[in-house]
Write a structure and sequence with these properties.
The complex is a heterodimer of chains A (198) and B (563). Chain A is mainly alpha-helical and 198 residues long. Chain A is built from five helices and no strands. In chain A, 71% of the residues lie in helices and 0% in strands. Helix content of chain B is 63%, strand content 0%. The chains are: A mainly alpha (198), B mainly alpha (563). Chains A and B meet through helix 1 and helix 4 of A and helix 4, helix 5 and helix 6 of B.
Chain lengths: 198, 563
């Protein structure tokens, strides 16, 4: 069978656009921009915490670290797991890639579940002063990134079952993996800021 | 099984110009050609210039007499808020995106932007958020009315208690505009870094490309802060959080930090490409190489870096500690150094040149003249004592209009005229262009020059009525504003009639040096197709005996043949 793509006419020689690295460059630039928005929130949190007369809402002395700590361990290890998935892909071991990639997705989903459990046990809300708002904003915004990461991983997993896609076209996988590392680093900073600095 | 490893962007499935290069229908469709997107941006932005200008004329109509007699003060607040918002987010940013879309790929010899689909998406967000913004005129309570700064606590008050209100629509529109700009910035930076023609090292890029790179990096570094602030403001307004509410432990000044961390650099996002336009046009119309090319290029980055550490000068009167005021006064004044380098280079380029006073050059000279004036008042405002005295008066309004309209918009007009033949394939009418320039220059000067005096005498900004002692300055300003309104007539006439029935433009009507001038007018879909010229020198070798590209003759002949 000949791929039907061949019937399309190229209007000039392929390779005229040196497009090999565009996607990665663009994606890294995008992540730099994303980190600024988190940076803005972190600065906001720190400024509000330092200048606030009363930080935690009444009746609350601090937040429990146990559940988030487990979550941290899961998320940090998933960053290593995804690295091995990428390695399998580079070695052309497609099934190895799929399995390890799926394990990463499960670890990410567990993180989201952990966050859900933590949120449902909290006794303060979004309206509980500057702290309440900041807490939910930061963890929620990060959680949104984790969910996006899982969805993107699902997309890559789906794509790995399509023909013709993994012959030197690992750009999507590399970008998603980079995104996952990014989400992980942001979580570590967030964990330090919210849970350790009490 | 044969696998064809192809990039979908390389495959052209249908003819991009079904009815010839001037087929107007493609400007109304989802097109991924950067040149089409550029023109879509520019036309949309010019439409909003008219709307924003109309609001500005209504404001000046109110201020022509001291009492508040034309509008209710609340309506007036809505008017100036929307005037500022429309002019910045629907005119200046989109039109500069349009110019960069048009110019960057041909100028660096790239076939298109790095991500053409994202590029189209960034444009189509503009109509979406402009409709959201304009819809706010029809919601209960009217549009946002806390100024384009939207400072809390005013902006998070919701007297009507409605979920959908003008302020909320404002925040959503601004956030969408931010997303559009970030997509655009990622695209521009990637394109410039990775898609330059062979031989075009960083120090052979046109200055316009340098300034676009600097400006777009600034977008990437600054805009997320504003988006973060807007998200928090949205939560405060809609979900009752207390980020900026003092009673809940929040801090309203924090918003000002977020806001100005982006919105001061935003001025440089807009003015840097205009500096690039000046640097492109002065050599062409004075037939001399750009003086101090490398210094001008590096100065762009100097401005970028310094502009990230000046934002507190907007907040000298918000109880900022003295050490902070002094520090930011110093950094703000430091910006005058790289800017001065540029002004010096332009004047040195003009010095002894063979100057042609055609419309683009007139706009450039007018813009440069006004910029020197606006720059000086800028340094005045950077000093803490002067700023505390005049910070909330019309002096500031006059200063920033001198930069934003009299410099940036002048530069934009210059660029539109200069590159009009290239991208439409038609020549504009020089006479109408000169009438447009004369009316614009007189109107703009009459509008904002007198307001410096009104401000120095103490006329406060953001109010619908004022003391009769300021009446004379306001009458002059209002007459200027109406002249500016009239000035748009020859401009529109010129653009429309010359595009429809103007004389065909040759590939290089100004005898300019630059990759885009080696292409036929209008350029084909993918600019250079296979034969990308190898760049040998920077594109300002007027009167010098060194070639700009390898085998220049070949490309000129090729473009003439296509033409």
């Amino acid at each position: 069978m000949v791929s039907k793509n061949q019937t399309l006419t190229l209007n000039h020689k392929p390779g005229h656009i040196k497009h090999d690295g565009h996607n990665m460059t663009g994606f890294i630039i995008f992540l730099c921009s994303e980190s600024i928005i988190f940076f803005a929130f972190f600065v906001g949190y720190s400024v509000l915490k330092i200048s606030a007369p009363v930080w935690y809402p009444s009746g609350i002395n601090g937040i429990d670290v146990k559940m988030p700590l487990i979550n941290t361990v899961i998320l940090v290890s998933s960053s290593f797991v995804i690295y091995f998935a990428e390695k399998y892909l580079h070695k052309k071991n497609l099934w190895g890639f799929r399995i390890v990639w799926f394990i990463t997705m499960i670890m990410g989903s567990y993180f989201v579940y952990g966050q859900y459990v933590e949120w449902s046990e909290l006794t303060f809300s979004l309206q509980s002063g500057a702290f309440g708002g900041m807490f939910y904003l930061l963890t929620g915004f990060h959680g949104l990134h984790v969910i996006t990461g899982i969805l993107l991983m699902g997309l890559m997993l789906y794509r790995s079952f399509l023909p013709n896609n993994y012959k030197g076209g690992e750009m999507g996988v590399e970008s998603v993996s980079l995104f996952w590392h990014f989400v992980d680093v942001i979580w570590l900073l967030l964990f330090g800021l919210i849970y350790l600095w009490q | 099984m044969t696998i064809v490893n192809y990039d979908p962007r390389l495959v052209k499935t249908k003819n991009p110009y079904p009815k010839g290069p001037n087929d107007w229908k493609r400007f109304f469709s989802f097109n991924t050609d950067a040149k089409v997107i550029g023109i879509q941006y520019i036309v949309t932005a010019l439409f909003f210039l008219l709307i924003g200008g109309l609001l500005g004329m209504l404001i000046r109509g109110e201020l022509i007499t001291p009492p508040s007699d034309l509008f209710d003060p609340t309506v007036y607040n809505g008017l100036y808020t929307m005037h500022g918002t429309i002019m910045l987010f629907l005119f200046l940013f989109p039109i500069l995106s349009g110019l960069t879309n048009l110019l960057v790929p041909p100028m660096i010899g790239a076939p298109d932007m790095a991500f053409p689909k994202l590029n189209a998406l960034a444009f189509w967000l503009v109509p979406v958020f402009s409709i959201i913004l304009l819809l706010s005129f029809f919601v209960p309570g009217g549009p946002a009315s806390s100024g384009w700064w939207s400072y809390p606590p005013i902006s998070i008050q919701n007297p009507l208690g409605k979920i959908i209100n003008g302020e909320m629509l404002w925040i959503i529109a601004i956030s969408l505009s931010g997303i559009s700009s970030i997509i655009g910035a990622v695209n521009f930076v990637t394109t410039i870094i990775r898609m330059r023609a062979p031989g075009m090292g960083f120090f052979k890029m046109p200055i316009f490309i340098w300034t676009v790179l600097a400006a777009q990096l600034l977008q990437l570094l600054g805009l997320p802060a504003l988006t973060g602030g807007a998200i928090m403001l949205f939560f405060d307004l809609t979900f009752g959080t207390s980020f900026f509410r003092v009673e809940g432990g929040g801090d309203p000044v924090l918003f000002q930090h977020f806001f100005w961390f982006y919105s001061h650099p935003a001025v440089y996002v807009m003015v840097l490409p205009v500096f690039g336009i000046f640097s492109e046009l002065f050599p062409v119309y004075s037939r001399k190489p750009l003086f101090g090319y490398k210094f001008v290029a590096i100065a762009s980055f100097g401005i970028t870096i310094l502009s990230l550490v000046v934002w507190v000068h907007h907040m000298f009167y918000t109880g900022t500690p003295m050490w902070m005021r002094n520090l930011f006064m110093f950094t703000t004044m430091l910006i005058a150094v790289p800017t001065g380098v540029k002004v010096f280079a332009w004047i040195a380029t003009l010095w002894g040149g063979n100057i042609r006073l055609s419309t683009p050059m007139l706009f450039c000279l007018g813009g440069l003249f006004n910029f020197i004036f606006g720059g000086i008042t800028g340094v005045m405002l950077a000093t803490v004592p002067v700023d505390i005295h005049v910070g909330n008066t019309y002096f500031v309004v006059a200063h920033f209009h001198y930069i934003i309209f009299n410099t940036i918009a002048f530069g934009i007009f210059a660029a539109i005229y200069h590159w009009f033949p290239k991208f439409t394939g038609k020549m504009f009418y020089e006479g109408l262009g000169k009438i447009h320039f004369t009316l614009t220059f007189i109107g703009a000067t009459l509008n904002w020059l007198p307001l410096h005096w009104a401000g120095l005498l103490g006329m406060p900004r953001r109010v619908a009525s004022y003391d009769p002692e300021f009446a004379i300055w306001n009458v002059l300003a209002s007459i200027g504003a109406f002249i500016l309104g009239v000035a748009s007539i020859p401009f529109i006439l010129n653009m429309v009639s010359s595009w429809v029935r103007g004389k065909s433009a040759p590939p290089n009507p100004w005898k300019a040096i630059g990759l885009e001038w080696l292409l036929p007018s209008p350029p084909p879909h993918e600019n250079f197709e296979e034969d990308i010229p190898t760049v040998l020198n920077e594109p300002y070798c007027y009167g010098l005996d060194k070639p700009f590209v390898e085998d220049e003759k070949f490309y000129v002949e090729k473009s003439l043949k296509k033409h």
